[in-house]
Amino acid sequence: MEPHLDALAEGPILGLPARYYRAPEVFERAKARLFRRAWLFACHASRLQQPGDYFAFSILDQDLFVIRGRDGALRCFFNVCRHRGHALVEGSGRARVLVCPYHAWSYDLQGRLRGAPGTRGLPGFDTGGICLTEVRLEVFCGFVFVNLDPEARPMAEVFPGVEAAVRALCPDIDDRVFAQEYDALEACNWMVAVENYNECYHCKVVHKTFASGVIDPQSYNVRGFGATRCLHHTAKAQAGAAAWYDTSGSDYGSFFLWPGFSLQVYPSGLVNTYHWQPLSPEATRVFRGWYSRDGRVDEGLRKVIDLDRDTTFAEDLALVKSVQRGLGSLGYRPGPLVVNPDEGIDSEHSIAKLHQWLREAIDD
Ligand code: FES
Ligand SMILES: [Fe+2]
Question: How far is the CA of 99 from the centre of ligand 1 (A)?
Answer without folding.
Answer: 9
